[in-house]
Amino acid sequence: MTVEARLGSVANYVDERTGAAAWMKKNLQKVFPDHWSFLLGEVALYSFVILLLSGTFLTFWFDPSQREVVYEGSYEPLEGIKMSAAYASALHISFEVRGGLLMRQIHHWAALIFMAAIVAHMMRVFFTGAFRKPREGNWIIGIGLLTLGIVEGFLGYSLPDDLLSGTGIRIAEAIIQALPVVGSYLAYFAFGGAFPGESFIPRIYTVHVLLLPGAFLALITAHLMLVWYQKHTQYPGPGRTEKNVVGYPLMPTYMAKAGGFFFIVFGVTAFLAAVASINPIWLYGPYTPGQISAGSQPDWYMGWLDGLVRMAPPIETHAFGHTISWNILVPGLIIPGILFTGMALYPFIESWITGDKREHHLLDRPRNAPNRTALGAMSLTFVMVTLINGGNDIIATHFDLSINQIMWGTRFGVFILPPLAFVITKRLCLSLQRADRELVLHGRETGTLLRLPHGEFVEVHEPISPEKAFLLTSHEQAPPLELPEVDGRGVKRAGALRNKLRSRMSVANAEAIPKVSVNDLKEIEHH
Amino acid sequence: MKRISRYRRHKAAGPFLLLLALLAIGTTFSVASATTAAETTSADRSLQIEEGRQIFLKGCSSCHGLNAEGAQIAPSLIGVGAASVDFQVGTGRMPMADMSTQAMRKEPLYNAEETAALAAYVASLAPGPAIPGESELNFERDGSTAEGGELFRNNCAMCHNFAGQGGALSQGKYAPTLMGVEPRHIYEAMVTGPQSMPVFSDKTITPEEKLSIIKWIKSAEKEPNLGGASLGRVGPVTEGLLGWVLGLGILIGVAVWLAMKAR
């Protein structure tokens, strides 16, 4: 028997018992569009796999206990110091376990890249409008994954029980306590008594290695199955419609690329872990509530929250025997709550404004959705301003600035800069639309100057390719919603205020430079 | 040799040898103890104080007053002690380059001798903390690294960062890095509390504990970066920056390459 025949008989054996052949054939030929920005989500997925693998390795030695031990390991500057078993075992992993430090660093770098890839992926989905119907549900799953990622990362940062971890936990406790009325009870509940207690590390360990990874796996599976079922979006272009997907089949092209990409992601993470130190816990020393280090920061994905807390003015009220710390409550819970709810609801908000209830599988070019793009730029500016304040002490020392100047700058900046970014981005988008229109109408500037017989100089323009012209004119420009105050029968509509708001927003959203129409082109040819 | 040994039974040989031995011992002693001897004489000390006063009048009095009594822009130096002068002048912080936020470490303006003279002059005004001697600074022998680390995290890390890299204080002031600072200057800073730093008296932190802190700082300074490039030992800010720029940056580059159409 030849190899092929043997393989064939195995396949036949499986098919006769499972009937998988038809399903496999259909799905292995499933087409995926190709674009680098579609790989950002893959980076996040692969980082998650790396996190699972390296994390499992770390659990072999990590002892999630706050039992006090005396350090007797090989790191001399901590010899004889009292510390928690958790910290001692993290030191043991770093110094005595073969490859332990590398694995710890891989785990931590992978976490940073995981979160960065999630955010970058989310930016791609947002700016291209990939969250529109039918993918609103998957967008919400994505927001869920982002939120879980922040929590999971923070718990991982807290586990080694070094000075930096403990500082983070202390702030988490403060945020729990800031909940009005129930805060202090919840904090006692979470910590099993007064801070720091002995139960917090064991508890968050279980959450970190069992509960949240389980939730991740479930959500990631749902996320990917939806991508599979709803098919991937694609960028507009000739031959690409709302009803097809142009790209490569899963097998072999995409499988080979994606499989190879996993190893590249692993390689880059391992490279970073091998050459760059991350969270050198031995330098921080063990956590005790009486100690703190200058420049204590969270990992970057929490940095913007830390920045918000740092810029909050110290306001507290006392009422009915309860203290409400607005300086923690507002930046630590209310603002993130508003932001994440707003993000999750955005697909519905946009479709309410545009009145567009159709399915979309072709992506938008960001410039053709100026309002959305501007809103995204506004949100990013907000996060950047707060992130800068989160690192204000490091920025102050390294750029010879005053921490107070940075704080006041960002206090004002957080109100002024995001709206400014909105306006500027929207203008930029409209200008780019104008440039597109110019390009279609008059062609590309060649840079060749021509002197006409009567002495006039003109620049030679070259018509753009039909493909490009298609790309620049194929998007839709929906007119704003018309929501008259009275309906067809002359009766005033209910919810006048809501309608007014909706139509105002719709007008602002529909603002665009008219794209080149067939008539425009005819007119040009006529000249 | 023979010519010398001929005189070994000469009657003057004994006294001559005795004289030679005395001379050798005396010379060795005087050479060995020359420096301390020079400072111990009171005449020399008053000369040094006078020299210090001259330097003070030229370089310091415009701010600190003609008699070091202080003025609106500068504190009185009466009672600050020699340790304070040795720290401020020896690390180049004084004379100040500008009066903006705080005196920063720079190349010292005065050499060791002039600094010692200035210190002697200020110490002569009123008693204050003295410059610790070499024997008091034997931190390698008298200090304990682990205990020093514990003390450092309790007392110093909140301003100077967990690894002694320095940190920001309010209004543009800062706690400087402790890397590469002379043990003597670290000790003097703890004793005298320069600028924003509090005084850590011998009751708060005993001299032995101070040596432990110095030993820990020196060990942190010498410690190789066990996990690879240190990224400044300032915590997650630089790590996040590198994660985005290098980590995700490389991966996006690879993604662009992977998604390129074969041409």
Automatic annotation (TrEMBL), chain A:
Gene3D superfamilies: Cytochrome Bc1 Complex, Chain C. Its main location: membrane. It holds the Pfam family Cytochrom_B_N_2. This is Unannotated protein. The keyword Iron applies. Coiled coil: none annotated. The lineage of its organism: unclassified sequences, metagenomes, ecological metagenomes. It is a multi-pass membrane protein. GO terms for molecular function: electron transfer activity; metal ion binding; oxidoreductase activity. The keyword Iron-sulfur does not apply. GO terms for biological process: respiratory electron transport chain. The chain crosses the membrane at residues 43-62, 108-127, 139-159, 171-191, 203-229, 261-283, 328-349, 369-388, 408-425. InterPro entries: Cyt_b/b6_N (IPR005797), Cytb/b6-like_sf (IPR027387), Di-haem_cyt_TM (IPR016174). Keywords: Cell membrane, Iron, Membrane, Metal-binding, Translocase, Transmembrane, Transmembrane helix, Transport.
From TrEMBL, chain B:
PROSITE patterns: CYTC. It catalyses: a quinol + 2 Fe(III)-[cytochrome c](out) = a quinone + 2 Fe(II)-[cytochrome c](out) + 2 H(+)(out). Coiled coil: none annotated. The chain crosses the membrane at residues 241-260. GO terms for molecular function: heme binding; iron ion binding; quinol-cytochrome-c reductase activity. PANTHER family: CBB3-TYPE CYTOCHROME C OXIDASE SUBUNIT FIXP, CYTOCHROME BC1 COMPLEX CYTOCHROME C SUBUNIT. This is Cytochrome bc1 complex cytochrome c subunit. The lineage of its organism: unclassified sequences, metagenomes, ecological metagenomes.
